[in-house]
Write a structure and sequence with these properties.
The complex is a heterodimer of chains A (about 325) and B (about 350). With about 325 residues, chain A is α/β, with parallel strands linked by helices. Chain A has ten helices and twelve strands. In chain A, the strands form two sheets. In chain A, strands 6-7-8-3-9-10-12-11 form an eight-stranded mixed β-sheet, sandwiched between helices. The two termini of chain A are about 35 Å apart. The chains are: A alpha/beta (about 325), B alpha/beta (about 350). Chains A and B meet through helix 7, helix 8, helix 9 and helix 10 of A and helix 6, helix 7, helix 8 and helix 10 of B.
Amino acid sequence: MSAALDVQGLTTRFDTRAGTVTAVDDVSFSVDRGRIMGLVGESGSGKSVTGFSILGLIDEPGRVSDGKVMVEDTDLRSLSPERMRSMRGRKVSMVFQDPMMTLNPVLRIGDQMAMAVRVHDPMPKARALERARDALGIVGIPSPEERLAAYPHQLSGGMRQRVAIATALLHRPAVIIADEPTTALDVSIQGQILAEVRRLADETRTAIVWITHDLAVVSSLADDICVMYAGKIVERGTAEEVIGQPRHPYTRGLLDSVPGQHEPGARLPQIPGSTPQLSHLPSGCPFRNRCSRATQICATVPPFTSTGGHSALCHHPLETA
Amino acid sequence: MTAPLLVIDRVSKRFPLKATLADKLAARLAGRRAGGAVHAVTDVSLTVARGEVVGIVGESGCGKSTLGRIVSGIYAPTEGSITLDGQPVAKGREDHVNKLTTQVQMIHQDPFASLNPRMKVGETISEGPRTHALVPSSEVGARTRALLQQVGLEGAYADRLPHQFSGGQRQRIAIARALAMQPDLLVLDEAVASLDVSIQAQVLNLFLDLRRDLGLTALFISHDLSVVRHVCDRVAIMYLGRVVELAPADELYARPEHPYTKALFASVPTLGTGRRAFEPVQGEIPSPIDPPPGCAFHPRCPFAGPRCRAEIPRLTAAGEGRSVACHLNDGGVKAKAA
């Protein structure tokens, strides 16, 4: 069986006054049904642009310049704008960080969810509302019937995000792209949503791409992890491999700088410098200016070195035990 | 033992809600007074010793930022008092605000909002000491450069504008601005929350270095349990305006006592390998406008009994410098108050 989502060589460029920058640089990964793939990176790493590129939501001055985005057996990049619109929300849907970006503040939850149903599946409104109610139930919203009549402002942030996830689920899409969906939520609410999402992936067999900066979240939620830096995937593997035995020096540094695993009050191991500007990337490996293992060869483009499915874009990957 | 530097004594803060015409009418008809209030902070007592870093942890709406702002003199408490170094402060804002603004310095979450975009960072850092005549004007420039170096930036950056700096660098500038006042107390309100993890580590290291070199005293407000664990000596857990547990950091993390503290710890994803079953706490945080009667956590608490719905638990000593506000530690949840 083919993967639910297969991204090959995805490249997105932005034409800026400072020249053309490559925000997503030759990104490839695939996600099978029922799996959660954590796409991790710091700000400016290109993780969100990757999500938007998959859905064809890149506006001027940006453009997806290369690559394939296969959802089941359809290459999204070959579709006309009309056909693409019929895929969005039906085969691939997206959950954003701020649920108010998804929800219309002046429409009742039921009305806007029914609208989302009927856009792709014409049916009587009563039946569409039933489907909306079922979707609210799936994401753990108590008394879904009442919520259908509520306006977004009457719900808490956690409830709104559940509604956004339920809306993404309406057409049982093959793939959901979730962009920092729990970042704005409190930890106890985040915990509830993570538990629901894990259950969702297992039960509905939806493939989920979970975009986040939070390593702790993906380490406990995701099956597989891709780490992005300066537009490139620099490491990929299962969650166990990437978190337990990282091979790329950047991943190692990122994991080490998370407090809570070190002696309290001790200096944290830190990655020197700051994330590079995409318009001023060093040649070869984009991380080499900050890397303790860098040598002369790092000025040339690094290869993907892999053991099994676990690989790192590095000339000097860390040894695994 | 010397007297604590900061004493927060039974401080409450309520923000009155503006009643709409419809509310006023409804209240008039029902024969009650219009307009409720947000109970942001309720009956909080806390001390901070000189050289100590105390963490204030809680989720949104728990009142941690309001408490920080009361300590900084931005808000006056509705009830209770704040004493800094033996002097009553923040009783009425005008009287003591001068003293407070020099002695307590605040570092905010968003370094993009907290620095004046049209002011050179050198001016931003030197404005306070200049206004309060802390430094002779001939030495202002040299001191500004020294402060920039102290926070790991170059002295020459004094002539630049905030937009020329990254988020982490701006937070260093905000720290330099706070230190320029030679404050007795720093209030850090989610000071590293908006930074990427690699930059966060750099800023936390800077804070630890400064603490060691200058003997800083600080209130460290954060929602991030692992950050707080790393930098704080003692930690207060807040829920819906009240402190529910207060303990030395080691003790608290080794053995959380309050059911909310336990639930919070269980909800936090931690770096680990392999899928974990989440055991999230059920329900949502209640509204601070109309907090539940009794213990505010009882609607979500698996151990709640009749007493929890009727009586507000007091923060009582539970050994080893720990206090907990829970009826489980105070005679059980069954009996109603006598």
